[in-house]
Specification:
The protein has 482 residues and is α+β, with helices and mostly antiparallel strands. It has 11 helices and 24 strands. Helices cover 31% and strands 17% of the residues.
Length: 482
């Protein structure tokens, strides 16, 4: 179906850079002709909605249940704006990142959010797809104003000035029908790959947990460890607190810079030092993404948080607290971000790879649940983590265990990496397909007419970031006032 798509027979220049060429019979109109801003208030009993980068408009209850975020909306919600099904809502501060979409629900959003209602002749589902394309996000960025990226705002008066394309209404319906069908299929493929990687990760972790807590000899004599989560350990092993495993040197176990010491305005293009974020270790392995960078001068002011190759990076805040990865060698100096911890292991006592595996095992077996700060935003403190007890064989046995684990888990890692690459390619293909269809680069009218009737919504994804590399890090539930 998708492979047979052809371009429209007649195209024209839209005159709008972010749209480019479009079908000759499509119209170009400013958003003020396509939408009307609505400000219905005094509906405090309605459910709260959130506008997210990865999913568009969702119930806030679903967002809170699936993340570490907290509801910081005002108790008095009489000034909150009503969103009706079919309305387009966007987060002014994050529209340029994709926090925009159609609502399937009736509910209320912060007074600082913007609600646009499509005029007659505009299908809100079509515009949901169009306004969530990377090209529109770039246009929203261009039209947003503010001193820094944290302050950029797409105001309603500037949203109205953005020009968009408008196919005939029956064609909008055909585009939505085609994209809903294609999206459902792509999500189904992605979900299958997600299930595979989850199963492989569980099998791999079971092997690691066994080796880290019991060693490799199935007949070894055991003794009580005295640690509830750990249970029995080999008789010749020790149990050491993390503070006795770190390198005996200043700043060998530190957190990232606090608050204003490292903010978005400190980031520069092509800087002299990297910032290592917890998003690089969400899988339990270090996955190198694009580093933010800072100047050498600013690096010197926060050098206490310096990290280097071989250090263990541990997520400190959020739903993935305790997730860890070993930092590879880097070509520039680096610091950990404020949501991370850095641990340098004492090489005379332990190997960094064994300690990394032990920390992940402790996390998986619930050891961190008793020491995490149990607020709406879970957080680990250095003091509490210092007292985390870990099983500790000799250095030689640690190395033997890790060599055996490498042999046992290499096939898992290869299959997981392949599945994750396929997920990434599917996600990129989905983004490109949607952009090409909604801007008229391919004609889907005949393909849509041949589609079978389908019921139900697209398959839910296991992770919020399955369709994008970006974490859902916007303050979508921290509701600023106008």
């Amino acid at each position: 179906m998708i492979a047979d798509l052809k371009p429209y027979p007649a195209m024209k220049d839209s005159g709008v850079p972010w749209l480019g060429q479009m079908p000759e019979h499509w119209r170009v109109l400013p958003n003020r002709a396509l939408f009307v801003e609505v400000k219905e208030r005094d509906h405090p009993a309605e459910q709260m909605l959130s506008v997210t980068i990865t999913k568009g408009v969702i119930r806030q209850q679903a967002l809170l249940a699936d993340s570490s975020k907290k509801d910081s909306s005002n108790q008095d919600k009489s000034a909150y704006k009503l969103v009706r099904p079919g309305d387009i809502a966007y987060n002014k501060m994050r529209a340029w990142q994709g926090a925009i979409g159609v609502s399937d629900y009736q509910g209320i959003v912060s007074p600082a959010y913007v609600v646009q209602r499509p005029r007659e002749g505009a299908d809100s589902r079509y515009f949901h797809y169009l306004l969530r394309t990377p090209a529109f996000a770039k246009e929203a960025e261009r039209c947003s104003y503010g001193i820094t990226s944290d302050m950029w705002s797409l105001r309603p008066e500037h949203f109205k000035m953005i020009y968009g394309c408008l196919p005939p209404l029956p064609e909008q319906d055909a585009i939505v029908r085609f994209l809903d069908h294609a999206d459902r299929r792509i999500r189904r493929y992605i979900r299958a790959k997600q299930k595979l990687t989850k199963l492989l990760e569980e099998q791999k972790q079971a092997i690691i947990h066994r080796a880290v807590t019991r060693g490799l000899d199935p007949n070894v004599r055991l003794k009580p460890s005295g640690v509830e989560w750990l249970g029995d350990v080999p008789e010749h092993w020790e149990v050491k607190k993390l503070k006795f495993v770190k390198k005996p040197a200043p700043n060998s176990f530190v957190d990232g810079p606090f608050g204003s010491n490292l903010k978005s305005e400190h980031y520069v293009v092509g800087g002299d030092a990297y910032v290592v974020e917890s998003g690089f270790i969400t899988s339990g392995r270090f996955v190198q993404k694009e580093f933010k960078t800072i100047t050498a001068g600013h690096f010197e002011t926060i050098k206490r948080s310096e990290c280097s190759g071989g250090d263990i990076i541990i997520a400190k805040i959020g739903a993935r607290y305790g997730m860890a990865g070993v930092l590879p060698d880097l070509d520039k100096p680096a610091v950990v971000s404020g949501n991370s911890l850095k641990l340098t292991v004492n090489a005379e006592i332990a190997t960094n790879r064994y300690v990394h595996a032990a920390v992940l095992t402790a996390r998986a077996l619930g050891a961190l649940e008793t020491i995490v700060n149990a607020t709406a935003q879970p957080a680990l403190s250095l003091g509490a983590l210092n007292d985390l007890a870990l099983p500790m064989p000799s250095l030689a046995e640690q190395s033997t265990i890790m060599l055996d684990l490498d042999r046992e888990t290499i096939r898992f890692d290869a299959t997981i990496d392949r599945a994750q690459r396929e997920i990434s390619l599917l996600s990129e293909y989905r983004t490109r397909l949607i952009a090409d269809v909604v801007t008229g680069k391919v004609d889907v009218r005949e393909a849509a007419a041949r589609l079978p009737e389908e019921a139900g919504e697209p398959e839910a994804l296991e992770e919020a970031d399955a369709l994008t590399d970006a974490e859902e890090e916007t303050e979508v539930v921290e509701e600023p006032e106008e």
